Amino acid sequence: MMATKSELTQQLGVVAGFDDPRVELEQYRTPPELAADLVHTADLQGDIEGQTVFDLGCGTGMLALAAALRGPKAVVGVDLDPDPLATARQNEKRVATKTPVSWVRGDATRLPLSAPDHTTVLMNPPFGAQKGNKHADRAFLEQTADVATVSYSIHNTGSAEFVESFAADNGGTVTHAFAAEFDVPRTFSFHTEDTQVLDVELFRIEWQ
Ligand SMILES: C[S@@+](CC[C@H](N)C(=O)[O-])C[C@H]1O[C@@H](n2cnc3c(N)ncnc32)[C@H](O)[C@@H]1O
């Protein structure tokens, strides 16, 4: 029987975040609760077990490892920065998954490897919202449209129209959308609190 969402959340508690986050790469970790929510939902849809899962912009591996704990064929995490990838390797040992996981240094918007059939993409890409670089997530969606059968992506709130029209123009259909919020360190906001609540939207897209 499938493990529960709260069991997955608990297992992900050992996944360390960024030691020295680089603001320009929007390096913050997805919280275990949200990663578990996303992957549990994907698992119920049949999008994890037996599939190949790509985590684009994997950071320290939170989404990749959440998926790895649900019996996919293989998992591939891709990030530009080698430092969080080193942490991701340690996190892989901590969660003690039996799934084969590869950590690849590279640009997730120009994937340095090909994806097999039945690839599920998971991603929490940079939004670019604070740098006048609106929809930095577009390049991630473009790559996703090329390689994914189905994808789950996290975007900043207010992205629904953009994501839906991007999908419609690129052979995709948004089948699920839900809202979530989580705390991010203030380095990633203009606020003076220690943390700021980030409002996000998650989308499941089927690609042709
Ligand atoms: C918001 S963080 C999410 C990290 C991780 N996926 C998680 O959910 O905890 C975005 C990640 O994308 C990575 N990144 C940014 N631009 C990238 C690119 N062009 N190619 C690969 N990774 C990139 C950053 O280094 C960072 O690790």
Describe this structure in words.
With 208 residues, this protein is an alpha/beta fold. The protein has a single domain (30-207), classed as Rossmann fold. It has helices at 5-11, 32-44, 62-68, 82-95, 137-147, 160-169; strands spanning 52-56, 74-79, 101-105, 119-123, 150-156, 172-185, 195-207. The protein has a seven-stranded mixed beta sheet with strand order 3-2-1-4-5-7-6, sandwiched between helices. Helix 3 (62-68) links the parallel strand 1 (52-56) and strand 2. Helix 2 packs across helix 3 (62-68). The longest helix is centred in the middle third of the chain and has 14 residues, at 82-95. The structure holds S-adenosylmethionine. The site of S-adenosylmethionine has 22 residues, from helix 3 and strand 2.
Order of helices and strands: HHEHEHEEHEHEE
Query: Cα-atom Rg, whole angstroms?
Result: 16 Å
Percent helix, as a range, is: 25-40%
Summarize the main sheet. 7 strands, mixed
- What is the CATH homology-level superfamily? Vaccinia Virus protein VP39
Distinct bound molecules:
S-adenosylmethionine
Provide the CATH architecture.
3-Layer(aba) Sandwich
Question: Structural class, please?
Answer: alpha/beta
In one word, what is the shape? globular
Q: Regions with pLDDT < 50 over 5+ consecutive residues?
A: none
Task: Give the N-to-C terminal Cα separation.
Answer: 31 Å
Number of extended strands: 7
Give the spatial strand order of the biggest sheet: 3-2-1-4-5-7-6
pLDDT average, as an integer?
93
Number of helices: 6
Write down the domain tally: 1
CATH topology: Rossmann fold
Taken as a percent bin, the fraction of beta residues is 25-35%
What is the CATH first-level class name? Alpha Beta
